Every structure is written in structure tokens, then in C-alpha cells.
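Lab notebook: predicted structure, single chain.

Context: the supervisor wants predicted structures on file for every construct in the current expression panel, including those that have not yet been purified. This is the next one on the list. No modifications to the sequence; it matches the entry in the shared construct table.
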Amino acid sequence: MTIALIAGGVLVLGGAFVAAPALGDMLAPSLASDQRVILGDDVEYGVNAAGETYGSPIDGTVPKLIPARADEGVIGYVRVSELDQQRNLAKSAISADQTFQVDVYESDGVTVVGTLAVTAETPGARDAFNK
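Prediction complete. Output recorded below exactly as produced.
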């Protein structure tokens, strides 16, 4: 009898741990376009329809899209992962003068408004935190 009660309790608790994430997903409101997410006390970012955060790196936190001025002069956002990839290519290029392009987007992360030339000297999103 005791073993049956313990086994039943384990099954109930185990089921609760498995179901909790699914329940949380169903009950939590999803982030819609142009909503904001607050990370800590002082960090707030916009969230686009794809769920990507956008804004300036602050307090050691870096959003998915950061502000940048395209070579054409338009202000937009670059995807940090794309910037990092192009910086890595530039740093490993045979020629130190070689440039690589990264798209500059509107905050939606889809609409391209220009391009940014990336070289080995182009600062990264986290560089200011490393000083």
C-alpha cells in the first residue's frame, strides 16, 4: 500500500512538472508586435512580430537587433548574429581591407533599408562591455 501511494505521488508530481511548461504557454499572453519586454529594472526593449528584441545594448544585455546607420545614411537595425558572422569573416580574411556586407533592417527585422560595410575594425555589439 505504501509503495503504491509513493508511486502514485511520483506520477502526479512528474506529470505536473511535464505539464507546467505547456500550461504556462497556454495561459501566458504572447508578445505581439510593438510590445515591450522589460529585462531587469532598467532595460526595456521593443519586440517585433517575430519575437526579436530591438534596441541599444545596455547593462550587459544585448537585444537581437541593434541600431546602426546604413552606408546610405538610413538609421535602422542590424541583427547581432549577422554582424558577428561578418565581423568574424572580416577578421579571418586574407586582406585586412576586405569588407563584408550586412543588411540594415527596420525594427521588424524583415524590411531591408540599406546595407552596412563590415571590416575587421567594425565594433561589435558587446565591445563596449569588455572595456
